[in-house]
Every structure is written in structure tokens, then in C-alpha cells.
Design goal:
Serine Threonine Protein Phosphatase 5, Tetratricopeptide repeat, Ubiquitin-like (UB roll), alpha/beta, elongated, three-stranded mixed beta sheet, 10 strands
Length: 403
């Protein structure tokens, strides 16, 4: 048992004996010097026999810190604020802007009567905020400094710089002019003013262009909506409207939210195609509407998309191109020849189908009392005449003929 205990003790030392033997042969690098230990010991505030007459923070940093803490309450508000300003400046030099802001803020909280010191604290804190990207806070501090001292050049420069970063070029020019009235030769303010004036003129030019573009787009949109309304084309809401309380006038519109042109104002987002291209109906220079049109081939689960189908064109014009000399790869049986095809549309509020003659212009279909443009994109179903799939697809459905 004794041998086991001894063995356990050796294991628990984990090499401590070897470490202690090595430690005995080496000196502790940070320890006191044997010849000057008394002098070094006397520098520690706790063991000092006598405090030095002149406490220099460089030679006695610990004592200076303790003395500052002990006698802080004895300092005047101005001295406290000055100390916090100096502390903030040290943090600023170290690029520790967050700590600098804390020090400057504490200095401003003190009830100090030295307005000049407050100006410096505001200006310095504005600089710290500026370097952190807090442009609004930096500008507020520059404003506070300017209120206390309207001709403080650093505050005026900082205010101009903040306005430039915030793209308030008119305000930046005003700050620059106030600064140059104090010192007309200041190079930074001169350069800043030139830049602010140039960018202000560019911003005003861009704003005028944007207004003209917006006006043109608004006029085009109004003309487009008027053309659709004039033709009596009906549009379907992309989403159902939120239900209102019972008895609301909106209930008359119906759950599908179908809105007829001339009854309610047309909404532009109902004219935007939900296809990947995001195409929208447009009005050409001759006053004709061009619609994005979707063709569905349910037998093969395929689609075709025509981005601009003129309302005066008929379906045959497009199908001859789509199913002419070269047939689509998915038509393995080579039966989707344009002369073999049938065209249908389905009513939005029922399962009734209407067959459309290939030579029918698009506008005639869109003006049909049973047709509604959904999601800004007229949609049609294409099948092969008399095919087994066509017969099965239309089985049990009412089909009307539209010549």
C-alpha cells in the first residue's frame, strides 16, 4: 500500500520536482535587483517611507494615479474637465475613438463654466464620431461647438466635412463660407467648398433628370392605362384584396377581385408580367398595344413566351414562326405543325373554354366579354386537333367557339 501511495504522489507532481530544480539555477527576470532592491522597493506606494516632493507621472505612475484618485474631489470642475479632455486626447491618439468619446462626454457632463473648454470638448468629440462614421452625431457636436463659439475654425471645418459625407452639399457650402469668413486662406475649406459646389450642381442636375424621367414615365403610364380602358380590356388582380368588415362596399367586387376598366382605377402592377422576363404591355408610337403573351402546351408541360405581341397581329402569324420549318425538341412525334393546332382560352371565373380561330387578332380576344388578362399576361392553351390528349383534356368541359 505504501508503494502505491508513493507512486500516486509521484504521478501527481507531474514534473514539478524537475521544474523546481531548474528554477533554482535561473534568476527571475522581473524580480528586484540584488544591489538596488531597497531603492526599487521604495518606489512602490505601499512601502514608501517618504513621498517624493514632486510626483512625476513618468517616474512614479502608480503614485500619480493614486494621488489623482484621492484628490479628485478636491479639484475644480475646470480641472476635472481638463483632465478628462487630456484623457480623451490620449485615447484619440491611440485611435481608440469609442473610449475618447466616453472621456469627452464625461468632461461635458461636469458643471464647468469654461465655455472655451466646452467648445474644445465638443469639437474633439465630433472628430471621434467622424472617425467612427457617426456623421449625424459628429455634426450635432459641431453645431453645439459653433453655438458656443461661432468663429471656431475646427468646428466649422468639421461641420462642413460631416455635411459632405451626408451629401448635404448646400449645408456644406454654408459651413465652408462661415469658415472662410474667419480665415479666407484656409486651404482645406477652399478645397472643400470647390468640391461641395461641384457636387451640389451635379446633384441638382441629376435631380432634374430624374424628375423629367419620372414625368415622362407617368405620362406614358397614364396613356397606357387610358388605352387599355378605352379598349375595355379587363384585368385581374395579382392578389386577392384583404377582406373587409361585413357590408363593406368592396364586397361587391367579388373574391377574385376582378376590376373592369372604367369601373375602378387600373393599377399598374397588374400590368407587369409574372414571367421571368418581367415584361409589361406597352403602347407604341402609333398607338398600338403590345402584350407579353404566354402559350401553354399541357400535353408536354411546356410553354412559349412572346414578349411583345401586337394587338393587331393574329395568332397564325406567330404560330407559323414557332411551328414552321423547325419544330421544338419536345415534339418527338412531330405533330405540332401549325396547321394541326387548336387554340383556347379558359375563363378566369369558371372552367369554360373558348376556342379561338388562328386568324383572330389578339385585340378581339382581349375585348371578349369572357376574357380577363391575369397578371398582365394574356394566356392561351395550344393542343393538337383531334389528338387523344386533346379529347381527354376537353372531356366534360363546355367549349365555345370564338371566330
Amino acid at each position: 500500500m505504501a508503494s502505491l501511495g508513493q507512486q500516486g504522489g509521484e504521478d501527481s507532481d507531474d514534473g514539478m520536482d524537475a521544474f523546481m530544480d531548474k528554477f533554482k539555477t535561473q534568476k527571475y527576470k522581473n524580480g528586484f535587483n540584488e544591489s538596488t532592491w531597497e531603492e526599487e522597493f521604495d518606489k512602490i506606494p505601499m512601502f514608501m517611507k517618504k513621498a517624493p516632493a514632486d510626483i512625476d507621472p513618468a517616474s512614479h505612475p502608480d503614485l500619480a494615479c493614486i494621488q489623482s484618485i484621492i484628490h479628485d474631489d478636491d479639484r475644480t470642475p475646470e480641472e476635472k474637465a481638463q483632465r478628462l479632455k487630456a484623457e480623451g486626447n490620449e485615447y484619440f491618439k491611440e485611435k481608440n475613438y469609442k473610449r475618447a468619446i466616453v472621456s469627452y462626454s464625461e468632461g461635458l457632463k461636469i458643471n464647468c463654466t469654461d465655455s472655451e473648454l466646452h467648445v474644445v470638448l465638443y469639437t474633439n468629440r465630433a472628430a471621434a464620431h467622424f472617425h467612427l462614421g457617426n456623421m449625424r452625431s459628429a455634426l450635432n457636436d459641431a453645431v453645439s461647438a459653433k453655438k458656443l463659439k461661432p468663429n471656431h475654425l475646427k468646428a466649422l471645418l468639421r461641420g462642413a466635412q460631416c455635411c459632405m459625407q451626408l451629401r448635404n452639399y448646400g449645408d456644406a457650402l454654408q459651413w465652408c463660407d462661415e469658415g472662410l469668413s474667419v480665415d479666407p486662406t484656409d486651404k482645406k475649406l477652399q478645397e472643400l467648398r470647390r468640391t461641395a459646389d461641384k457636387q451640389k450642381r451635379e446633384a441638382e442636375r441629376d435631380a432634374r433628370k430624374a424628375m423629367l424621367k419620372e414625368k415622362k414615365q407617368r405620362e406614358q403610364t397614364e396613356a397606357l392605362l387610358a388605352a387599355i380602358k378605352e379598349r375595355g380590356v379587363k384585368l385581374l388582380r395579382v392578389q386577392k384584396p384583404a377582406r373587409r368588415a361585413s357590408g363593406s362596399e368592396d364586397e361587391e367586387e367579388g373574391d377574385e377581385g376582378r376590376v373592369a376598366a372604367g369601373v375602378a382605377e387600373l393599377v399598374l402592377d397588374r400590368l407587369v408580367s409574372k414571367e421571368a422576363t418581367g415584361e409589361r404591355v406597352f403602347l407604341d408610337e402609333n398607338g398600338a398595344l403590345h402584350w407579353p403573351v404566354l402559350f401553354l402546351y399541357p400535353e408536354h408541360r411546356q410553354t412559349d413566351f412572346i414578349s411583345a405581341f401586337c394587338e393587331t397581329s393574329n395568332f397564325l402569324d406567330h404560330l407559323v414562326v414557332m411551328f414552321g420549318e423547325e419544330l421544338p425538341a419536345w415534339d418527338t412525334d412531330r405533330k405540332y405543325l401549325f396547321q394541326n393546332l387548336q387554340l383556347f382560352f379558359e375563363e378566369a371565373e369558371s372552367e369554360q373554354f373558348h376556342q379561338v380561330a388562328m386568324t383572330t387578332p389578339l385585340l378581339k380576344v382581349l375585348q371578349h366579354s369572357r376574357y380577363t388578362v391575369k397578371d398582365g399576361t394574356p394566356c392561351f392553351i395550344v393542343m393538337v386537333t383531334g389528338s387523344p390528349f386533346s379529347k381527354q383534356f376537353l372531356s366534360g368541359k363546355k367549349v365555345y367557339w370564338l371566330k
